Amino acid sequence: MFELRRLTVTSLLALATLGSFAVQAQPVYRIVGPDGRVTFSDRPPPEGAQRSQRGGGFETAAPGGASGGSALPFELRNVASRYPVTIYTGANCAPCSSGRSLLASRGIPFSERTISTQEDIDALQRLSGGGTLPFLTIGGQQLRGYSEIAWTQFLDAAGYPKTSQLPSGYRNPAAAPLVAAQRPPADGGTAAPQQAEAPPAPAAPEGPPPSNPTGIRF
To answer: What whole-number distance in Å separates Cα of residue 159 and Cα of residue 81?
Structure first.
């Protein structure tokens, strides 16, 4: 009887110890909201949210403008929201391909608008004051034609990282015409095409950041 009671007490102590370890091993979830605020919870993140092990807990990536289910890192998302990049391109345009490749190799999230119809050309002229392609906008800044040096300087000044920080599953939105094609109305009349508008210029900061020796202001 003594030996049996001893085994029983030992088993209870072992179970209590295991229970203590189970409580201590309960995961803590580190949740990053769309605004970058970090909260902690013992409840798992919503199903389908991206999770990565960090600091013994889990972090959920808030959905962003990325397609393919991959969210941008917070700092990159912050820059892209302040100074969104849009490239305007045409078919059989070698400089357009060079500009697109520069943005892609550097990991710049961007939108692409294609110029192929007369409506596109007219809208581009109203937007840029000319018909030069490629045409690049970084926030309120406008760059006509492709120049690797100029594009790099403006991207640096806006605060974009010099090397790609895009998640592996990130995909930029598919290229779309500058002027969206409209279906004719039911009464047989002519529908006015939707034309792109120039993005408002963001307020200029007090001075150029330390990483912006060119002094370019946004």
So the answer is: 12
- Tell me the pLDDT tens digit for each residue of 52-96: 433 333 333 333 344 444 589 999 999 999 999 999 999 999 999
What is the rounded CA–CA span in Å between residue 70 and residue 165? 12
Q: Residue 70's closest CA among 136, 164, 152?
A: 164
DSSP string across 195-211:
---PPPPPPPPSS--TT
Query: What pLDDT shows up at residue 43?
Result: 65
Residue pair 87/144 in contact by the 8 Å Cβ criterion: no
Residue type, position 130, single letter = G
Domains and CATH numbers, the chain: 25-62 (no CATH), 74-177 (3.40.30.10)
CA 9, distance to chain mean position in Å, is 58
Regions of the chain short of the pLDDT cut 70: 1-70, 182-218
C-beta of residue 191 within 8 angstroms of C-beta of residue 184: yes
Nearest in space to 77 (alpha carbons), one of 202, 208, 196, 167: 167
